[in-house]
Specification:
This protein is mainly alpha-helical.
Length: about 190
C-alpha cells in the first residue's frame, strides 16, 4: 500500500490505520532533524538585535549549560523561541507544546511562561504592567522561570559572549526528542 483509499477518516480500515501508524512512527523518529532545521531557520528572522534568533537561542543554551542546568533545561533554553517564526504573539506557548511530550512539567511550564516573565524588563516602556508574572508568585515553578529569564534568556543578546555551536547541542537535541513521548517517568518527574 502506498496511500490509503479513504477520503473520510470514518471510512478507514484497520489495515489502513496500521499502515499510517507505521509511517507516523517513522515521521516522529525524524523529529530531532526537524527541530535542528527549525533552529537553523532562526538565523534568518527578526532584525534589530545584535544577534540573530539562532545566536540568541544558542547563547541562552550555552548560559544554561555553563550555569549547571540539567539537559532538559538546556534543551528548553535552546528551543524556547522556536515559536517566534509562526506564532510571534504567543511564541512561548508554541515552544512549550514542542517540548511538552519530552521533558518534565517544570521545564514545559518555564518555556510556556517565559514570554510573560520577560515583560519585567520592558513592559513599562509601552505603558503595560511589568509585574504580570506576580500572578504566579505562589506557583511551584515561579522561581525556576525567574531564574531562566534573568540568568539565561534576557542576558543572551551579547554578540561577544563565547557561544557554543548548534553542533555542540545536536546530541542533546537528538537525545531529548528521541525519548518516548509522554513517558510518565519523564513528564511526571519533579527534578
Amino acid at each position: 500500500m502506498r496511500t490509503v483509499s479513504f477520503r473520510q477518516m470514518k471510512d478507514g480500515t484497520e489495515a489502513e490505520y496500521r499502515f499510517l501508524d507505521q509511517l507516523e512512527r517513522q515521521w516522529i523518529g525524524r523529529l530531532p532533524d526537524r527541530i535542528l532545521q527549525a533552529l537553523r531557520a532562526l538565523d534568518d528572522g527578526l532584525d534589530g538585535y545584535q544577534v540573530t534568533r539562532l545566536q540568541h537561542s544558542l547563547q541562552t543554551a550555552t548560559r544554561a549549560e555553563a550555569d549547571g542546568a540539567d539537559e532538559e533545561m538546556i534543551v528548553a533554553a535552546l528551543v524556547h523561541d522556536l515559536g517566534d517564526t509562526l506564532a510571534p504573539l504567543n511564541h512561548s506557548n508554541l515552544a512549550a507544546e514542542i517540548v511538552r511530550p519530552y521533558v518534565r512539567a517544570e521545564v514545559t511550564w518555564v518555556v510556556e511562561h517565559h514570554g510573560l516573565f520577560q515583560k519585567i524588563y520592558y513592559a513599562h516602556f509601552f505603558g503595560e504592567n511589568p509585574e504580570l508574572r506576580a500572578a504566579y508568585r505562589d506557583h511551584p515553578y515561579y522561581e525556576s522561570c525567574v531564574r531562566f529569564c534573568e540568568r539565561w534568556d534576557q542576558a543572551a543578546f551579547d554578540p561577544d559572549y563565547p557561544t557554543r555551536s548548534l553542533e555542540h547541542f545536536e546530541p542533546l537535541v537528538r537525545r531529548i526528542f528521541s525519548r518516548r513521548a509522554f513517558d510518565p517517568a519523564v513528564i511526571d518527574r519533579t527534578s
